[in-house]
Amino acid sequence: MISEKMAKSLNNQIKEELFSSYLYLSMAAYFTSQNWHGFANWMKKQSQEEYSHAMKIFDYLNEVDKKVNLEQLDKPKTDWDTPLDAFEDALKHELHITNKINELAKLADDENDFATANFLRWFVTEQVEEVASVKSIVEKMKYIGDQKNGLLFLDSELGKRQ
Ligand code: OFO
Fold this sequence. Notes:
With 162 residues, the protein is mainly α. The chain has one domain: Ferritin (Up-down Bundle). It has helices spanning 4-33, 37-63, 83-110, 114-144, 148-158.
């Protein structure tokens, strides 16, 4: 049995993950409106991944016999100045999520909640990957700068994400 405090924090993380999904879907809409279909594809896939993160926590709470209480989602930002601006926001967001996951892991440790600590390990590893993958896109975009050809090539590369 996990504590009420832990259950509440995990419920809140469902909201964080669903908001991540919503934010990346909003970025996909922005990229589509700007004809960057590869970037839009990447963001759509990312949005689906975030939904699956939320569902992992949803299922875990059910398994440990705690009720899921969905909370209200904020409206995501809808426009960015450039593709780099959007991916920089995505990186900022992933760093925020890493902090949230670390807080949850710390709480599980403090409460000697070994089951939740073990469950959260997957998220700790996942965040390292998520931050690294967005960071590498940001760095490529900075390197490309204003060169349209470079940006078109990257758009086509990110369009390959399955
Ligand atoms: Fe992007 O890892 Fe979940 O939120």
